[in-house]
Design brief:
mainly alpha, DNA-binding, transcription regulation, transcription, Tet_transcr_reg_TetR-rel_C_sf, HTH-type_TetR-like_transc_reg
């Protein structure tokens, strides 16, 4: 689908209505999970026609991926504090502990669905993984341009692995949700040293 066609589809509803639909989709995901979520249920919850939902999003996978993307607090690449540590800390502080716990629970549920659903995996790559990877690389490129990080630092290609890994592993290993304090400590102890940037 071209950007022009996608823009035409989205223009048929207001941004406020789009946000309401995405919030309803996330609520349903938390209640029943991806596999049990249906376009009929979304239509009923949002008082929309199923035809409208398919016209706007094409299917469940794209709708869910875009709802998750919309729920994220702003664009990674928009953060520019003047230092890599400042940028990574600012990104972490955009979501409070309660929001992180909700996001962690949601993503744990979706992780299972992604591996068993090629359409959902494709939508997640297109709308979440690839855009966020590109944005994190812009943050790192600014650090390279400032002279904070060497351009040939091998850790650059693993930035998303590190950031997502800490978020996901917190619950698996410690049986606790990710928190601001935990992620800030992780950034200072693991991420910044990997890039050769002092944490202090």
């Amino acid at each position: 689908m071209t950007e022009a066609v996608a823009a035409t589809r989205r223009s048929r509803i207001t941004p406020e209505r789009e946000a309401e639909l995405y919030e309803a989709v996330l609520d349903l995901l938390r209640e029943v999970g991806y596999d049990a979520l249906t376009m009929d249920a979304v239509a009923a919850r949002t008082r929309s026609s199923k035809a409208t939902l398919y016209r706007q999003w094409g299917g469940k996978a794209e709708l869910v991926a875009k709802a998750v993307r919309h729920n994220k607090p702003g664009r990674v690449g928009d953060v520019d504090t003047g230092s890599l540590k400042g940028d990574l800390h600012a990104l972490t502080l955009r979501a409070d502990d309660c929001e992180m716990e909700q996001s962690s629970a949601l993503m744990r549920g979706l992780a299972m669905a992604v591996h068993g659903n090629p359409d959902l995996l494709k939508a997640f790559r297109e709308h979440l993984i690839e855009p966020e990877t590109a944005e994190f690389h812009r943050v790192l490129q600014r650090a390279v341009d400032r002279g904070e990080v060497r351009a040939d630092n091998p850790a650059i290609r693993f930035v998303m692995h590190m950031m997502i890994g800490a978020f996901a592993a917190r619950t698996m290993i410690d049986e606790q949700p990710p928190t601001q304090d935990f992620l800030l400590s992780y950034i200072d102890a693991v991420v910044l040293p990997a890039f050769g940037v002092p944490a202090s």
